[in-house]
Amino acid sequence: MGDPTANVRIDCLQYSAWSDDIFDEMARGGVDAVHVTIAYHETFREMVLRLEEWNRWFERRPDRIFLGRTGEDVRLAKSQGRTAIFFGFQNPSPIEDDLGLIEIVHTLGVRFMQLSYNNQSLLATGCYEADDPGITRFGDQAIAEMNRVGLVVDMSHSAERSTLEAIDRSARPIAITHANPAWWHPALRNKSDEVLRALTRSGGMLGFSLYPHHLLNGSDCSIDSFCQMVADAAQRYGADHLGLGSDLCQSQPDSIVEWMRNGRWTKQRDFGEGSATQPGFPPQPGWFGSNLDFGNIQKGLSAVGFDDAEVEGLMGGNWLRFFDDSFGPA
Fold first, then answer.
1. Could you give the maximum distance between any two Cα atoms of the chain, in Å?
2. Residue 40 lies in a domain
3. How do residues 32-41 score in pLDDT, each as one tens digit?
């Protein structure tokens, strides 16, 4: 048997319309682990219903997928040709205002939680708010409890001050699972050089996003441009704390992106990172449309000068190290 850590592929964010076809594509694309979103605006009970749906998938397709809880599960998936599924929240709404639910959701298998989505939450500020007062008192308590149990702090949709404070106040490295540098493309969701330097200096991880609104030239972004951006980021921050978080929403209807942006908090349509002429999902770039296409990125990274070990780290090895260190109790 070969090295179970060699050539691991990990995607640290997807929210696709799950199906047998997508699970088969994960296997064909050699994707060993995926962090999947199971909550945007859901309450605790609504989140439990998502867990029930996933339990049915695990029951139906044990040949393809299983619940991942540790880095060892990624290695197991690799050795068996399956995909380990790791759960995450893009909003802290499932813990409501109850600190004790953090340990409960970790016990249920959740491994990532964003402290805010695009709006202000009880914990931190989202990137679309005009003012960012930073981490709240509840947020401080939540970070400490997340550190204790092994639930990763994710600041992908959070505003600048809140993100910097989370990096500083967390006793364990945090993650930005799906975003790109703002110096490459200045989307509100992309992160400043100051944030990315603080993140990587502290041992945290950045997952590069393939969502068109986060890409230079959007759906027309070239793979050369994307991979050169990764190379430039590696020059600034080092390659060891960089990976992929595609934000792939394969086969989702436009009604889902409205749920992501609008939830129940507004009667109006919130266009988020799109525009009034793009209320739905934008088309993916031609070189990345499904789990079959990770090989294109791997080749592109080699083409811009990364050596084999660096490519292996960027495609999943760096995330695997982070998983090993982050998912258990402190």
1. 56
2. yes
3. 999 999 999 9
